[in-house]
Amino acid sequence: MPNKTPRIAVDAMGGDHGLTGIVSAAVSAAKKGTPITLVGDEYMIRSELEKLDTGSCTIDVVHASQVVTMEDKPADAMRKKKDSSIQVACRLVKDGLADGVVSAGNSGATVAAGMFIIGRINGVLRPGMAGILPTEKKPMVLIDVGANVDSKPEHLFQYGIMADVFARDVLGFKNPRIGILTIGEEEGKGNSLVKTTYNMLKSSSLNFVGNIEGRDIFTGDVDVAVCDGFVGNVALKLSEGLANSLGNLLKGELKRDIVSKIGAMLAMKAFKRFGRLVDKSEYGGAPLLGLKGIVLVCHGKADSLAIERAIEMAARFVKNDAVAHLKEGLAAHSEITESTL
Amino acid sequence: MPNKTPRIAVDAMGGDHGLTGIVSAAVSAAKKGTPITLVGDEYMIRSELEKLDTGSCTIDVVHASQVVTMEDKPADAMRKKKDSSIQVACRLVKDGLADGVVSAGNSGATVAAGMFIIGRINGVLRPGMAGILPTEKKPMVLIDVGANVDSKPEHLFQYGIMADVFARDVLGFKNPRIGILTIGEEEGKGNSLVKTTYNMLKSSSLNFVGNIEGRDIFTGDVDVAVCDGFVGNVALKLSEGLANSLGNLLKGELKRDIVSKIGAMLAMKAFKRFGRLVDKSEYGGAPLLGLKGIVLVCHGKADSLAIERAIEMAARFVKNDAVAHLKEGLAAHSEITESTL
Fold first, then answer.
1. Where are the domains of chain A?
2. Could you tell me the CA-to-CA distances from A89 to A13, A82, A96, A111, A296 in Å, in that order?
3. Taking 80 as the threshold, does the pLDDT of residue A235 lie above it?
């Protein structure tokens, strides 16, 4: 059922910043036309909503009596917090009352709730989490960024198929260039996981461009890079950390003499434009691909803009019928996937 | 035999920039007191030397009739190019005519020559390549950055022991903080490789600080991060690529309006200081640890300063008797290492 109006369930209780920013992001997205269901402590949510001009937007509230904290272990949270906002949100999708979930809460628990409540698309071996990174040109997709570790070639192969659909349906790429992240440019370079996956991708109908190295991620010359969740998560967090540290070092140097200080003030406009280019909020969340609905996992530190962007991404995913396209893509490649099982 | 004067064999034929920069780096290091043997095409090397003021420095030249190119496969290079500069340089160490090797040539071939000609220290399972990264504070060591992929816990454990010695003897750290690179802060997070290695490091006498994430690498709060060569190589190249891309994006924005342009010119001093802070040349090469001598693998793009710094590192390694300390460290931990074999 393509082009339906998607309803997104937003976990109001997740995130390091409390629910003020989340509720205001939800209102903002609702005003732009996406129906929202806010899930969490009803009293707290309604108090936040009262402060905002909600006008004629479609916002429902569904109460959830429990909250998963950042310290909870995913397995414990699954078992002991069945009425937590994230589980209630996922149940809305399962029951057809919402089409997607956005949460900035405990990512492990969010992944677990998505997998066990919403459930996997038939044939998906492991859902993969896609990170969307800014590059010198367009954004690119790194998958998996930590949903699974100790992956097998067939998992990586399916990540490629799923990220291809995501890049088309949500990022609007025509014919995404899919690469495999490894440690040498030539065919046959890498570890055993990469070598087998390489051959699977090569025999697929994807626009496979071969090996890419860490240094190629940010040039924007490839649209999707496939890797194991351990590697992807290290890469994602390292990028975040390096960008921060470089920023700190540069700021320190710009303050160290008065002429540089004045120069930096004059160049403020450029620094701001630069900041927007590399702003994580622009692609607010990491989609968990392979479920019967869409779950957007936001950073615990996500601000209101990031949450709003994540809601928009989830809505675009549903509008463009990406789940159906995921099914088609996976089915078309099932023979290659099964060849290694 | 501690505190001896080390002689370093420099591969004059490696690197993307030709031998001019390499020879001048060698002369510069020799002038500061490190005896050098330049290895490669004797005629070419002597022509370069003639252009420089070599004064009273100790520089020998040893002829090698072959050159390993960047395109050569390491195994082919080992077999077919026995008189290549890198093999001749390693043979000098094997024969006691030099104490260490510096090369900016084909890194795979350099690692292979080091392993098969100089040979491993008794008990070393896999030599590991250490990358030295600038951070917000002191530099830090990431090991392994690509000598091996598909590593086992005992390999990672030995990398930790060897990097500890390197950080003490060459970087001058008193009690290096050793962490394991993984994807969560708490004990028990990561893949199966990391979990086993964690326990080995925990039961060692190293100053083990536990799990560290990608984002912690550049803060400078840990001195050594241990990881598989696949992960380390991706991390190293990604850092390089991201720093470049951020630089390009910022430069682009600074040029986009005239006020920012003027501001950037005024702040030039700060940008230069910043550039020096993050300059790769500062720690010119990646040491291959675990051999009966030291091999410094430089980036193909290494400039003259980087090569000179690499020569200095190699010399410091020998002067401080690091091979003996590696042996001691490995022997002291052999029981833990063998527990998983």
1. 1-124+290-320, 136-279
2. 11, 11, 11, 12, 12
3. yes
pLDDT per residue as tens digits for the range A87-130 = 999 999 999 999 999 999 999 999 999 999 999 999 999 999 99
Domains B1-124+290-320 and B133-280 are alike in CATH topology: yes
Instruction: Mark yes or no for CB contact B214/A230 under 8 Å.
Output: no
Over residues A142-152, the pLDDT tens digits come to 999 999 888 99
Beta-carbon separation of A250 and B215 below 8 A: no
- Cα A254 → chain centroid: 34
Verify whether the Cβ–Cβ distance B182 to A230 is below 8 Å: yes
- Residue B84, classed as helix, strand or coil, is strand
Q: CATH: 1.20.1250.20, 3.40.718.10, 3.20.20.80, 3.30.160.100. Which one for A1-124+290-320?
A: 3.40.718.10
Determine the CATH number of domain B133-280: 3.40.718.10
B277 min Cα distance to partner chain A (Å):
8
**Whole-number pLDDT of residue A280:** 65
Shortest CA gap A168–chain B (Å): 25
**Which class would CATH give A136-279?**
alpha beta
To probe the interface with A, which of B71, B106, B144, B253 has the most A CB atoms within 10 Å?
B253
Chain B's closest residue to A147, CA to CA, is: B183
pLDDT at B1 over 50: no
For residue B255, what is the nearest residue in chain A, using CA coordinates?
A270
ipTM > 0.90 for the complex: no
Residue A218, H or E segment: none
Instruction: Give the A:B interface size as CB pairs under 8 Å.
Output: 200
Cis peptide upstream of residue B216 (ω within 30 degrees of 0):
no
